[in-house]
Design a protein that fits this description.
Blueprint (H helix, E strand, L loop, with lengths): L12 E4 L3 H15 L15 H13 L3 E4 L3 E2 L4 E2 L2 E4 L16 E7 L2 H10 L5 E4 L4 H10 L4 E4 L27 H6 L13 H4 L7
Parallel strand pairs: 1-6, 5-6, 7-8
Antiparallel strand pairs: 2-5, 3-4
Family: Belongs to the aldehyde dehydrogenase family.
Protein name: Aldehyde dehydrogenase domain-containing protein
GO molecular function: aldehyde dehydrogenase (NAD+) activity
Length: about 210
C-alpha cells in the first residue's frame, strides 16, 4: 500500500530459522500471482520524492540480506519494485530505522523470544503484528511488548475500524485518534479549585505555630 509509505506498514518479519525458506518460497509464489506480467508493468506507487527514493535505493545497496523477489528500480520514475529480503541480520542497515518504503526484510531468529527481546530493546512500535493460531503464543507476545496497536493475522486494518482508538506510545506517538478519542486527545481538561474562607478555620493546623 502506497509503496510502504504508511506509518502502519510492517517494517520487518521475524520468523524461526527453520521456516524462513518456506516463507520465502511463499512470497515468490504470491509475487508471481500479484504481478504476472512483472512488477514493472503493475500499478505500484512511486516514492514521494528524490530523497525517499535515494534512501530506499541506498538501503537495498547496503543490506547484506538476499533479494527473494523484487529489487528492480527506475530512478527517473522514483519507482522501486516491492522487495522482499531474507537472511537479514539484526544489525543490518535495513533495521536501523523505519523503512517507509517498498522493502520487507525477513529476519530469521533461533526462537521467537529472540525476536521479542530485540523488539523490546527498540523504541515502542506504532503497530505490532503477530501471525499465529496459537492464542497462548499471541498472549505471550502481547504481554511481553508495548505498542500503539496489536493485530493478529493481518496488517494495517486497525486504523479502518472507527470505534477503535488509533495512536502510538513513546517515540511512535502520543495520544489517540478516532471518534471521541480525537476530541479527548485535543482537549485540555483544566482542573479548577475554589477554597472558601472557612477553610482557614478548619485547616488552621497548616499554619505555625
Amino acid at each position: 500500500m502506497n509503496a510502504g509509505q504508511t506509518c502502519t506498514a510492517p517494517n520487518h518479519i521475524f520468523v524461526p530459522q527453520e521456516a524462513q525458506e518456506a516463507l520465502s518460497d511463499a512470497f515468490v509464489k504470491i509475487y508471481k500471482d500479484f504481478y504476472p506480467d512483472g512488477a514493472e508493468n503493475a500499478a505500484i506507487s512511486i516514492l514521494v520524492n528524490n530523497a525517499a527514493f535515494n534512501r530506499s535505493k541506498q538501503l537495498l545497496e547496503k543490506t547484506r540480506g538476499e533479494v527473494v523477489c523484487g529489487g528492480q528500480f527506475d530512478e527517473k520514475r522514483r519507482w522501486i519494485a516491492p522487495t522482499v529480503l531474507k537472511n537479514v541480520e539484526l544489525n543490518d542497515a535495513v533495521l536501523e530505522d523505519e523503512l517507509s518504503g517498498p522493502i520487507l526484510p525477513i529476519v530469521p531468529v533461533k526462537d521467537m523470544q529472540e525476536a521479542i527481546d530485540f523488539t523490546r530493546s527498540q523504541p515502542h512500535p506504532l503497530s505490532l503484528y503477530v501471525f499465529t493460531d496459537d492464542r497462548a503464543f499471541e498472549e505471550h507476545v502481547f504481554s511481553q511488548n508495548q505498542s500503539g496497536q496489536f493485530v493478529r493475522n493481518d496488517c494495517c486494518v486497525q486504523f479502518t475500524i472507527q470505534d477503535v482508538p488509533f495512536g502510538g506510545i513513546g517515540e511512535s506517538g502520543d495520544g489517540m485518534l478516532m471518534g471521541k478519542c480525537t476530541f479527548d486527545t485535543l482537549s485540555h481538561f483544566r482542573p479548577t479549585a475554589s477554597s472558601p474562607r472557612l477553610a482557614d478555620t478548619l485547616l488552621g493546623w497548616r499554619f505555625p505555630p
